[in-house]
Write a structure and sequence with these properties.
alpha+beta, four-stranded antiparallel sheet
Protein backbone atom coordinates (compact mmCIF):
# COMPACT_ATOMS: atom_id res chain seq x y z
CA UNK A 1 0.00 0.00 0.00
CA UNK A 2 1.38 3.38 -1.00
CA UNK A 3 1.15 6.21 1.51
CA UNK A 4 1.53 9.94 0.94
CA UNK A 5 1.57 12.76 3.47
CA UNK A 6 -0.23 15.81 2.05
CA UNK A 7 0.55 19.14 3.71
CA UNK A 8 -1.90 21.88 2.75
CA UNK A 9 -0.93 25.53 3.26
CA UNK A 10 -2.57 28.91 2.65
CA UNK A 11 -0.41 31.20 0.52
CA UNK A 12 -0.19 34.99 0.43
CA UNK A 13 -2.90 35.14 -2.25
CA UNK A 14 -5.32 33.28 0.03
CA UNK A 15 -5.27 30.12 -2.07
CA UNK A 16 -4.16 26.67 -0.96
CA UNK A 17 -0.93 24.96 -1.92
CA UNK A 18 -0.32 21.26 -1.31
CA UNK A 19 3.03 19.57 -0.75
CA UNK A 20 2.92 15.78 -1.09
CA UNK A 21 5.60 13.65 0.53
CA UNK A 22 5.97 10.00 -0.47
CA UNK A 23 6.50 7.17 2.04
CA UNK A 24 6.04 9.00 5.36
CA UNK A 25 6.84 7.25 8.63
CA UNK A 26 3.94 5.20 10.00
CA UNK A 27 4.31 6.66 13.50
CA UNK A 28 4.03 10.39 12.70
CA UNK A 29 2.21 12.43 15.33
CA UNK A 30 0.03 15.52 14.97
CA UNK A 31 2.67 17.53 16.84
CA UNK A 32 5.47 16.45 14.48
CA UNK A 33 3.46 17.30 11.38
CA UNK A 34 2.43 20.68 12.82
CA UNK A 35 6.06 21.48 13.71
CA UNK A 36 7.30 20.61 10.22
CA UNK A 37 4.60 22.78 8.65
CA UNK A 38 5.51 25.72 10.91
CA UNK A 39 9.19 25.29 10.05
CA UNK A 40 8.40 25.33 6.32
CA UNK A 41 6.41 28.56 6.80
CA UNK A 42 9.01 30.24 9.04
CA UNK A 43 11.98 29.38 6.82
CA UNK A 44 10.05 30.47 3.70
CA UNK A 45 11.26 27.33 1.94
CA UNK A 46 8.64 27.26 -0.84
CA UNK A 47 6.91 29.98 -2.84
CA UNK A 48 4.77 29.74 -5.93
CA UNK A 49 2.63 31.93 -8.13
CA UNK A 50 0.43 32.74 -5.11
CA UNK A 51 3.38 34.01 -3.08
CA UNK A 52 4.92 32.62 0.07
CA UNK A 53 3.19 30.16 2.37
CA UNK A 54 1.61 31.97 5.30
CA UNK A 55 -0.43 29.41 7.29
CA UNK A 56 -0.96 25.70 7.78
CA UNK A 57 -4.42 24.69 6.58
CA UNK A 58 -4.57 20.91 7.02
CA UNK A 59 -2.55 17.73 6.75
CA UNK A 60 -3.64 14.26 5.79
CA UNK A 61 -2.20 10.80 5.33
CA UNK A 62 -3.44 9.28 2.08
CA UNK A 63 -3.28 5.50 1.58
CA UNK A 64 -3.57 4.03 -1.89
CA UNK A 65 -3.71 0.36 -2.78
CA UNK A 66 -2.57 -0.33 -6.35
CA UNK A 67 -3.11 -3.65 -8.13
CA UNK A 68 -1.36 -4.23 -11.44
CA UNK A 69 -2.90 -6.28 -14.26
CA UNK A 70 -0.81 -8.30 -16.71
CA UNK A 71 -2.11 -7.39 -20.16
CA UNK A 72 0.79 -8.27 -22.43
Amino acid sequence: MEKTLSLVFKNAAGRTTTLSLAAPRDDLTDAEVAQVMQTIIQKNIFAGSGGELVAAATARLVSRDVSEFTVA
